[in-house]
Design goal:
Layout: E1 25-26, E2 29-30, E3 32-37, E4 41-48, E5 53-59, E6 62-68, E7 70-76, E8 79-85, E9 90-93, E10 97-103, E11 109-116
Length: 117
């Protein structure tokens, strides 16, 4: 007698594996660099010239600071919208998030992203 077992493993995560913000870029070019990294956190500096974006990627829980703002088209689970991101603003997410962004403004934007590990 021969017995066969088939195990099906499912997950709540998307079947597509997205890059993190450091791995993701725009048209093959990196947009983020690591400023500092330790066991607790990673700090990224992400720069977007006009017409440059960030391909679809995920973020772990993080805090962000806008060093220089611009106008962005953001696509995420809520849909696509255009927002003016002002210099000096902060933002945070306490959960895993995914999005694509594109600088549709006329100035270079710079963000600091502080990720929990």
């Amino acid at each position: 007698v021969s017995l066969s077992f088939v195990f099906l493993i499912t997950s709540c995560k998307s079947s597509q594996i997205l890059p993190d913000p450091l791995e993701a870029g725009w048209n093959g070019e990196k947009v983020c660099v690591v400023l500092n990294e330790n066991k607790q956190q990673r700090i990224l500096k992400c720069t977007f010239k006009p017409g440059i974006g960030h391909e679809e990627h995920y973020h772990k829980p993080h805090f962000g600071y806008t060093v220089a703002g611009s106008k962005f088209q953001i696509t995420d689970a809520k849909g696509t919208r255009t927002v003016q991101v002002k210099t000096g603003t902060t933002f945070k997410k306490e959960i895993l998030s995914e999005h694509t962004v594109l600088n549709v403004g006329d100035s270079t934007a710079v963000f600091l992203i502080i990720e929990k590990k």
